[in-house]
Write a structure and sequence with these properties.
By secondary structure, the chain is mostly helical. It has two domains: 2-277, Orthogonal Bundle (Fic-like fold), CATH 1.10.3290; 285-344, Winged helix-like DNA-binding domain superfamily/Winged helix DNA-binding domain (Arc Repressor Mutant, subunit A, Orthogonal Bundle), CATH 1.10.10.10. Helices cover 61% and strands 4% of the residues. It is built from 15 helices and four strands. The strands form two sheets. Strands 1-2 form a two-stranded antiparallel sheet. The radius of gyration is 21 Å and the shape is globular. 39% of the residues are buried.
């Protein structure tokens, strides 16, 4: 599609992009080592990442549920009680499909529609291309509505997605581009086509995870890429906006988006190394993760702050670790009650 078409085979990446790709390659080697040496620790990270991914990807789209319902829906497979819980449950099912069958899932129109169907949980036009043209808009505080981007027309979507999937697969088969660059182009073109009436952002994040897995980058299994996107939403939308200008004419600049995409992957691997590299399997994996999160805090923090960074872990377990670190004189309490602040000693 357009991002693959405009560059040609003699691509020359900026040194900053090359540096980030090399950094990711180094981290990839460490990931494989951790997977062999510390499976217990990584299993704990998988559960946390699953919860964070479901929560963040849906929260970006404005879909939220009570925090106490998050773990039962994502991990406990509790029956959804309303539409919001259904959407989170659907996204979890899409993640399950990728985690378990990524090797046999082709990057194709059928797979993309299936990811949309699962993440939208069979409601309305789930798994169907949009039937009407749409626009990406921005609402300003004063009420003014700005058209940020006009995606591809509805009647061109089916053919465009087929072309995109073929261009992506061909670029990998011919080694035309580095895999990370090809994945970034795949996602940029998908978002520019905007093939669904709703849920394009969620599917783009699922597609990112699938493509990374298939190319040997498994960090998204242990660290939530969706949370990293949520935490950098301004940079995400800014880079996407810059790279989509003149996309229809194939005269767009892919590099703002590529830089953002690579920086997000580097951030995920850094966090992975921080969480997995400093832990030893002798103690409970979750206990160690909580301890590491606490000891990485800057300034004052509360139990609620740690709870936010350790989804899927009960408050009781977090309290136990707080007491252990307090007994070891590594942290001190600055007050009383549920909202009491703590700091490292």
């Amino acid at each position: 599609m357009n991002s693959f078409r405009k560059v040609g085979k003699n691509i020359q990446l900026p040194l900053s992009a090359v540096w980030m790709m090399n950094t990711v390659s180094e981290y990839k080697g460490k990931e494989e080592l951790f997977a062999k040496q510390s499976p217990q620790i990584l299993n704990a990270l998988v559960e946390m990442a699953m919860i964070e991914s479901v929560e963040s990807s849906n929260r970006i789209e404005g879909v939220t549920i009570e925090r106490k319902r998050l773990k039962p829906i994502v991990i406990g497979h509790s029956k959804p009680r309303d539409r919001s819980e259904e959407e989170l449950s659907g996204y979890r099912k899409a993640l399950d499909l990728i985690h378990k069958k990524y090797e046999s899932l082709a990057i194709s129109s059928e797979t993309i529609k299936e990811l949309h169907r699962l993440s939208r949980l069979d409601v309305g036009d789930a798994g169907q291309w949009k039937k009407k043209n749409n626009e990406i808009i921005k609402k300003h505080p004063n009420g003014r509505i700005e058209i940020v981007f006009t995606p591809l027309e509805a009647d061109k979507v089916s053919d465009a997605i087929k072309q995109l999937c073929l261009a992506y697969e061909d670029s990998l088969a011919q080694s035309s581009y580095p895999p990370l660059y090809a994945i970034a182009c795949l996602i940029l073109d998908f978002l520019s086509i905007h093939p669904f009436r709703d849920g394009n952002g969620r599917v783009s994040r699922l597609l990112t995870l699938l493509a990374l897995y298939q190319n040997g980058y498994g960090v998204g299994k242990y660290i939530s890429l969706e949370r990293i996107v949520e935490q950098s939403k301004e940079a995400y939308y800014e880079s996407l906006n810059k790279s989509s200008q003149d996309w229809h004419k194939s005269k767009h600049d892919v590099m703002p988006w590529v830089h953002y995409f690579l920086s997000a992957i580097v951030s995920a691997y850094r966090e992975f190394e921080q969480r997995a590299g400093h832990l030893k399997p002798a103690r409970g994996a979750k206990t160690q993760i909580i301890s590491q999160v606490i000891l990485n805090q800057l300034g004052e923090f509360s139990i609620s702050d740690i709870e936010q960074e350790c989804p899927g872990v009960s408050r009781d377990m977090i309290r136990v670790v707080f007491r252990q670190l307090q007994d070891e004189k590594k942290i001190i309490c600055l007050g009383k009650g549920k909202s009491a602040k703590w700091k490292k000693k």
